[in-house]
């Protein structure tokens, strides 16, 4: 449904991603993992057309994304970035309503249908009691849910989430991961997210894309791609891996950095 062919992306004269090929299928939950600076966010931005590639193409439902109208892309693809900076005095309801904008004509006012969709999104993210609360008065986890509600309200086919659990405590992290799975299962929204927490990526994703230095090193089901060698190659750490009995997916136990080993030997 969204794919990249021979993608080359960079900033000014710095090439970040090169020769990248990727195909995301409808209904998948995909996590992109890899070390800091390897190009994960750059890839998400390219998939949403926020960044224009230096060469290569991104296709949305078989059509070149660069040829599509911005409004059509906004109806189908939603990118939730790490740095959400809506004014803190907006209420949850006002913030969520912004998700309707791609579906509206210029100067078209809020309809009953919009109100129903806003309420539906707020309810499905468990925020009903905060509907009239300014987002500045929410906890980090609640605010993150409000942004997810805004994305739901947009009714996208594909939701791109850039480090959605950053700054959240473990309880909110799990809550958010469970919400992501629920959204995927209930509303058939395809999810592509960047995660740093490897065990959450393994547990909650159908597929992992492992990146290093702007390249995809491995791509497949967690059980097929997670192994000690790939973790060592990508993160320069030693680890143990066992099976999480609950999810039947690989669980990674970091031991030490390779650099630390060199220092003592
Ligand atoms: N707007 C920009 N202008 C110039 N360089 C940039 C810009 N945005 C990102 N970069 C550089 O591109 C490289 C990849 O950044 P990107 O944010 O895609 O990595 P990432 O894998 O998402 O990293 P992290 O895990 O730290 O969030 C980094 O070296 C970064 O400094």
Task: Characterise the protein shown here.
It is a peripheral membrane protein. Its main location: membrane. This is Fe(3+)-citrate import ATP-binding protein YfmF. It holds the Pfam family ABC_tran. InterPro entries: AAA+_ATPase, ABC_transporter-like_ATP-bd, P-loop_NTPase, Siderophore_ABC-ATPase. The protein is of the alpha/beta class and 265 residues long. The protein has a domain at 2-81 and 156-257: P-loop containing nucleotide triphosphate hydrolases (Rossmann fold, 3-Layer(aba) Sandwich), CATH 3.40.50.300. It has ten helices and twelve strands. It has helices spanning 40-47, 70-76, 92-97, 112-124, 140-153, 170-187, 198-204, 222-225, 228-235, 258-264, and strands at residues 2-11, 14-24, 29-33, 55-60, 63-64, 77-80, 158-162, 190-194, 207-212, 215-220, 237-244, 249-257. It has a six-stranded mixed beta sheet, sandwiched between helices. The chain has a four-stranded antiparallel beta sheet with strand order 2-1-4-5, covered by helices on one side. A hairpin with a 4-residue loop joins strand 11 (237-244) and strand 12. Helix 4 (112-124) crosses helix 5 (140-153) and helix 5 packs parallel to helix 6 (170-187). It binds adenosine-5'-triphosphate. Adenosine-5'-triphosphate (ATP) binds next to strand 2 and helix 1. Adenosine-5'-triphosphate binds at residues 11, 14, 16, 34, 36-42.
